[in-house]
Every structure is written in C-alpha cells, then in structure tokens.
C-alpha cells in the first residue's frame, strides 16, 4: 500500500460502487470484497471510510425495499410503549432490533482504529472468508429451520446481535454471521435473512454517518475518493443493492447457503495464493 494516499479514479469509484451493491446483502462480505478488488485490480485499499459511506447506499435500498415493514414496526413500537394491549409481533421486533444493535455499537466504537487498520490485512480477510464459510455450512447443516419470524424471541435477537459484532472484521460478512446465528437458534432461512436485513439498518447507517467526515476529507494511505465520486458510488450501490435484496430473498426461499460457502472458500484460497506468491500485498 502506498505511504501517501492516491486519488481514486472514476472507473475505480464506479467499479467499487457496483461491488458494494452486489455483495452487501450476500453472505460473502462486502468490506472484504472491496478490500480485495481494490488491492488486486487497483493496487491499493479503497479504505474503511469509503466502505462505510457507500454502505449508506445499500442501507437506503433496505429502507426502500422494506419501507412498509419498517413503517409498521416503528408505528407498532410507539403504540406498544403507551398501550400494553398492543404489544404484538412488530412491537417486539422493534425492541429486538434496538437491543441487538447495542453490542456492535459498543464494539465498533471501542475498536474503530483497529477496524480501519490492522483488520484490513488480506491474510486476515482471506482466513475469515474460509473460516466463516465453514461456520455457515455447519449452521446450514445443523440448523432445524423450523421457526418462522413470528416466533422470534429476545434470546434470538441477542444472539444475532452479538454475532453481528464479528462482521466488524472484513471477510466475516454481516448477513452471513447473523443469518448463520439465526439458523443455529432454529429460525427458518427466510426468517433469519429477513431479520438480518432489519438488524443491519441502524448499525450500518450509524457507521456510514460516523465515517462521513473522514471520507470527505481523505488523508493518509489508501485511495482517496472525492465527494462527487463518493456520491456516485453510493448511488450505484443503492441501485445494485436494491436488486440484490430482491434476488437474495427469492434465492434463500428455495436454495441453501452452501452455494455461498463454496464461493467463499474458493475466493479465500485464491487470495491466499496471490499473497503467498507475492502478487498482492497483505497491507
């Protein structure tokens, strides 16, 4: 990686925006893919701030796609606060999202410096791609997949919230970690993935907003994107991410996570081979 950050080109911004949109919701790690693609094809790191800000685009896609569900949950949560008789499923889901978001907020703030530096090492990312591919395979194999979203409990929310903290490490995958946790506690694949989407909204939105100052005033190592490039990359991530959500929800209704397991292992092994051969730099 260069000692002084270089300016990002428009081609790089567009490509990385597409990568963010394609991979944010798939259990393959968007931050890991951005790090790998930017290093392999562009010879440098796009940076944690670029990753966090473009995630605002994909989270906007979630907000739009689930707008009706989110609106219903928010209204139910407020009604339930003042009327115990109206504390039904949507009210509970609202609380589950709030409670499950607390751990990643604490860990994300406490380890923000490590997340932006050492955690972006390609040896670590490639290892996590493979390790969590195995975790996903175990969850898919042993998960009972019996309980729908209507049977979600506080324990489920806490377990998935704690697991979401692991996604702070590039290569793990937020959706992969939380969906696997959902399968381990017996949720159906569709229920685990849907709650995983809802759970990501506050954490990713907060991370993106927190990183805005650093992203728009780039300094130091890595590729430095201009404000205009960040805006365009975020809009691209939004459009591609919206399509990816619709595709993934249809896919998991009929297919297992094993498809992503194989891809993660192959990609992790490929990156390790490139690192061992000196083709790319780990840092």
Indicate the topology.
Blueprint: E1 6-7, H1 10-23, H2 30-42, H3 48-65, H4 67-82, H5 89-110, H6 112-116, H7 122-142, H8 154-164, H9 174-184, H10 189-216, E2 223-224, H11 227-254, H12 258-276
Parallel strand pairs: 1-2
Helix pairs in contact: 1-2, 1-11, 3-10, 3-11, 4-5, 5-8, 5-10, 7-9, 7-12, 8-9, 9-10, 10-11
Strand order in the largest sheet:
1-2
Uncertain runs are none
Structural class: mainly alpha
| Rg measurement, Å | 19 Å
Q: Say how many strands there are.
A: 2
The average pLDDT value, as a whole number, equals 89
Taking the alpha carbons of the first and last residues, their distance comes to 6 Å
Strand proportion, as a percent range, falls in under 5%
Number of domains: 1
Order of helices and strands: EHHHHHHHHHHEHH
The main pleated sheet reads as:
2 strands, parallel
Principal-axis shape equals: globular
Number of distinct helices: 12
**Fraction in helix:** over 70%
Report what the structure shows.
- The chain has 283 residues and is mostly helical.
- The chain has one domain.
- 73% of the residues lie in helices and 1% in strands.
- It has 12 helices and 2 strands, in the order E-H-H-H-H-H-H-H-H-H-H-E-H-H.
- Strands 1-2 form a two-stranded parallel sheet.
- Helix 1 (10-23) packs parallel to helix 11 (227-254), helix 5 (89-110) runs parallel beside helix 8 (154-164) and helix 7 (122-142) runs antiparallel to helix 12.
- It is globular, with a radius of gyration of 19 Å.
- The mean pLDDT is 89.
């Amino acid at each position: 990686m260069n000692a002084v950050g270089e300016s990002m080109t428009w081609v790089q911004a567009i490509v990385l925006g597409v990568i963010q949109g394609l991979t944010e919701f798939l259990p393959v790690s968007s931050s890991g893919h951005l790090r790998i693609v930017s290093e392999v094809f562009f010879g440098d790191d796009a940076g944690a701030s670029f990753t966090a800000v473009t995630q605002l685009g994909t989270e906007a896609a979630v907000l739009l796609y689930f707008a009706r569900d989110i609106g219903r949950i928010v209204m139910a949560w407020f009604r339930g606060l003042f009327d115990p008789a109206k504390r039904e499923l949507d009210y509970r889901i609202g609380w589950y999202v709030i409670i499950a978001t607390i751990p990643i907020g604490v860990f994300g703030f406490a380890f923000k410096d490590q997340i932006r530096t050492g955690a972006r090492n390609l040896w670590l990312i490639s290892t996590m791609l493979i390790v969590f591919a195995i975790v996903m395979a175990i969850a898919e194999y042993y998960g009972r997949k019996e309980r729908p979203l209507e049977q979600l409990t506080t324990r489920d929310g806490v377990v998935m919230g704690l697991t979401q903290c692991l996604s702070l490490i590039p290569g793990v995958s937020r959706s992969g970690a939380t969906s696997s946790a959902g399968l381990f506690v017996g949720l159906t694949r569709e229920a685990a993935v849907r709650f995983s989407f809802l759970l990501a909204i506050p954490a990713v939105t907060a991370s993106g907003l927190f990183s805005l100052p650093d992203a728009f005033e780039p300094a130091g190592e890595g590729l430095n994107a201009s404000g205009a490039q960040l805006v365009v990359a975020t809009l691209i991530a939004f459009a591609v991410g919206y399509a990816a959500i619709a595709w993934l929800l249809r896919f998991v209704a009929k297919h297992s996570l094993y498809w992503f397991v194989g891809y993660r292992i192959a990609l992790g092994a490929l990156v390790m081979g490139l690192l061992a051969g000196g083709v790319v730099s780990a840092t």
